Amino acid sequence: MTKTIFIASAEPYAGKSVIALGLVNMLLSKTQKIGFFKPIISQQEPGRKDKHIEAIISYFSLPIAYEDTFAFTRQEVLQHPESENWGEMINTIISKFKKLEEDYDFTVIEGSDFLGEGIAFEFESNAAIAKNLGAPVLTIINGENKSTAQIINSALNVLRNFESREVQVLGIVANRVKAEQVEDVRELLRMQLPDDIMLTVIPWEKALLSPTMREIADALDAKVLFGEHLLSSQVDNYVTGAMMLPNFLNHIKENVLIITPGDRGDIVIGALQANLSTNYPKVAGIVLTAGTIPEEPVMRLVEGLQNIIPIIAVQQGTFGTTTAIGAIHSRITADNTKKIELAIDTFEKYVDMKKLDDKIITFQPEGITPHMFQYQLVKWAKSQKKHIVLPEGNDDRILRAAARLVGQNVVDLTILGDPTEVAAAIKRLGIDLDLNIVRVVNPTHSEHYEDYVETLYELRKNKNVNLEMARDLMTDVSYFGTMMVYKGHADGMVSGAVHTTQHTIRPALQFIKTKPGVSIVSSIFFMCLPDRVAIFGDCAVNPNPTASQLADIAISSAESSARFGIEPRIAMLSYSSGTSGEGEDVERVREATALVKERAPHLKVEGPIQYDAAVDPIVGNQKLSNSEVAGKASVLIFPDLNTGNNTYKAVQRETGALAIGPMLQGLNKPINDLSRGCTVDDIFNTVVITAIQCQQE
């Protein structure tokens, strides 16, 4: 068992960042106290930070000061290679690392990069640092442009070199291996490596290596003429626009960068028009070469367009520009969350997580942290993929969340909307959402439309719904999506980004209906606070629940809490604690508490109790010293919608807590409502919890 791990590569551009991101994400699923240390960083321009360190700290919100994450720049080390100075530097590195290590349960150390002069010194320094820090090594081999034999030899040589310096090697990762070589590399290495060495082979992943328009603009020192807000667009292909327009259009591929002299206005206009057309792939951007820009009429035309793709201008000629772009090595940066998420997904897909976990420390954390909770949620959702319908395909946030959900292989999706309009929106937004994987359904054109109309009529004819009314209602995406769930054509539904709560859940109340024994549909939020996850209910549905309804809400919330891995300790909130208060509202909560104890005697419940006494151990002990709940409540039940809704929003805004939900409870099948102010993250998380609800039906 170890509390540290040293990620080292044996050569340039091996892809250490994929392993570092995946490893930190895995460790944060077990404890929130994770440190990150890179002893030697490359020289940074004044005011700039190491991009990789910045990406790790920013994405995971690690509470580490940037200056504590490294000891020296590479230039500082190379200027003083003498053994005496190197000894002093090692002492400084050890001192800085030990100070960091004291504050964290586990520290990920990343070796230096093989760039520029001093490459011969690089391996020796990494080995020496790993040895002096007592950190076992996970070493990365770059398989790009190598034969199978070369990859095998590189791996075995690196293992021998580390072992000859008495550095323990936990595992070897062969990264960026061609798909057709993967099995051979894995089989041959497994035969020759000791059994205790963990082996991982990761195929070449184009999307991880493709540069963004911003990286290209920076590398070429280009002037950005248009589309600065889309510079995060990824470039997967590039083509030189030196031919006639009709022939050029045949060469457009997905996420293509067009490199053309600035005087080729026909190519510029053709590229812009192709990007708008649903018959052509997405264009990532245009580079105008040779220090020229299109003539004034063309520029005026471009300026008047909406959603212009990035257009940048450089002084170099077309050939030199193309060569320079081909030499760019893309980095995973803090602003590119799509690439960070892909890196983490790649790590989880190919690394034997259980084997790695067995080799490093096993944590026994108290409670559950927000990252642990979110990590577990996605893992649960993936374990048994469910089919979710998203009725609001006309909303950009829904499409962005859908791309992320499909990209991470969390759920199967149906999106309701006009397929042509959805395809155009996907292209306009520049998102990667494969419509061969996601179903886009226009309700009135669906093969199930007539059957759904007939079913709704049969279900609601006793409520004065005639066939024509049913036909009209079934054009409504909320009714159509809910009917998909009712008929088993989808497992659950998430809506509300555009529609009101009432609009979203009305169809569910009409024919999905409540579970047996449940008198009321209610909601909970998973409040991801800095050090724990709490359940808040009901903050979204019921304005003034009776004592009996409050008891049902508490019991349903406790069941949901347990289902999602949070031990339920229920606090029935009021403006007084214990027997100190009087009045109608307090009595209602007191009665509800008694009903919970009667209906579910196995549950830990306290009420009436004030919020501070429920969550603060000191206050809780002062006011209710013998309580199993006071000071450590995990399920907080608010007496009415006014109190609950305002409290969850106040806690969310003032503490920066992540609020996942609302999750509706009590329905026969999972239907969940979004806030109309929801973010892409909110939609993603709500779909994930809906998928988990579907597994438990």
Keyphrases for this structure?
697 residues, P_AcTrfase_dom2, Phosphate acetyltransferase, 24 strands, EC 2.3.1.8, alpha/beta, transferase
Structure summary:
By secondary structure, the protein is α/β, with parallel strands linked by helices. It is 45% helix and 17% strand. The chain is globular.
How would you characterize the overall build of this protein?
By secondary structure, the protein is of the alpha/beta class. The strands form five sheets. The protein has a six-stranded parallel sheet, sandwiched between helices. The longest helix is centred in the N-terminal third of the chain and has 20 residues, at 83-102. The two termini are 40 Å apart.
Radius of gyration: 29 Å
The helix count comes to 28
Indicate the percent of residues in helices.
Answer: 40-55%
Q: What topology, given as strand order, has the largest sheet? A: 2-5-1-6-7-8
Structural class by helix and strand composition: alpha/beta
End-to-end separation in angstroms reads: 40 Å
User: Unreliable stretches, pLDDT < 50, 5 or more residues?
Assistant: none
Mean pLDDT: 87
Could you tell me the strand content as a percent range? Answer: 15-25%
